[in-house]
Amino acid sequence: MQVEGAVVLVTGANRGLGRAFARALVDAGAAKVYAGARDPGTVTDPDVVPVALDVTDHAQVQALAEELGDVSIVINNAGIGRGAAPLGGDDLADHRAEFEVNYFGTLAVARAFAPVLARNGGGALVNMLSALSFVAFPQIGNYSATKAAAWSLTNGLRTQLRAQGTQVVGVHAGYIDTDMAASVTGPKIAPEEVARQTVEALATGAEQVLADDVSKAVKAALPDDLEVLYPNIQKEYDAATATAATAS
C-alpha cells in the first residue's frame, strides 16, 4: 500500500501512539490524515484534520464512514486498559468497557470502513494489537482477552477482505512508552518506532508487525506456551498474591 498521497483515518489519534501514527503518516507523504478523537479539540497537530469519533458509538462510526468517502487507509488504534483481572472487581463494568473499545470498537470501524476502502481500490486496514494478544497475565487478563479476540478478528478480516484488495495488518508490541504504560518500569518501545515500522509494513505489503523483542519472543513461544511462558507467570502471580496477603 502506497502511503504517499493516501488519505488516512487514525482512531484515538489525540495522544500517545495514535498521535505518533498520525505524525508518521503525514511525514510519509499522506495527502490527508483524519485524526479521530472523542474530543477533536484535543488534537493539537496542525497538519492533521481532527474529527469527532467515539468508537463505542457505532452510529457515529457509521456516519463518519459515510462522510469520509476518500479514506484509503484506516488505523484502528483506539484502545483502553482498565486493569481488569478475570476474577477482580465488584462487577463487570471495567471488563465490558475494555471489550467495547478494544474489540467491538475495532470491529465497528472495520465494518463501517471496509466498503469505503473497497471503493477506493482496496487500501489498507491496520489493527493495533499487543504482545498480550498471545499471552495473559492474570492481573490484566481481561485486556489480554480483548487483544486476543482482536487478533482473531484481524485474521478473519484479512481473509474476508483479500478479494477486495485490502491489506490487513496486525501490529503487536510489548509495553509502549505512553500514558497507558506509565506505571511500568520495564523496557518500553517508543511510539514513534511502532508507527515507523507500521508505515514500513504498509509500504512493503506486510501483514504483521512484531515491533519489539517482547512481541517476537512471545509469538515464537506460542507452540509451547504452557511450558515456556506460564510457569514464570504463575510464580510471579503467586509471589504477588502472597505479598498482598501478608500486607493485609
Shape: globular
CATH architecture annotation: 3-Layer(aba) Sandwich
**Strands in their spatial order, largest beta sheet:** 3-2-1-4-5-6-7
End-to-end distance, in Å? Answer: 55 Å
Number of strands: 7
**Secondary-structure class:** alpha/beta
User: Which CATH first-tier class would you pick?
Assistant: Alpha Beta
Approximately what portion of the residues adopt beta-strand conformation?
5-15%
Characterization of this structure:
The chain has a single domain, classed as NAD(P)-binding Rossmann-like Domain (Rossmann fold), CATH 3.40.50.720. The protein is 46% helix and 13% strand. It contains eight helices and seven strands. Strands 3-2-1-4-5-6-7 form a seven-stranded parallel sheet, sandwiched between helices. β1, α1 (16-27) and β2 (32-37) form a beta-alpha-beta unit. The longest helix is centred in the middle third of the chain and has 27 residues, at 93-119.
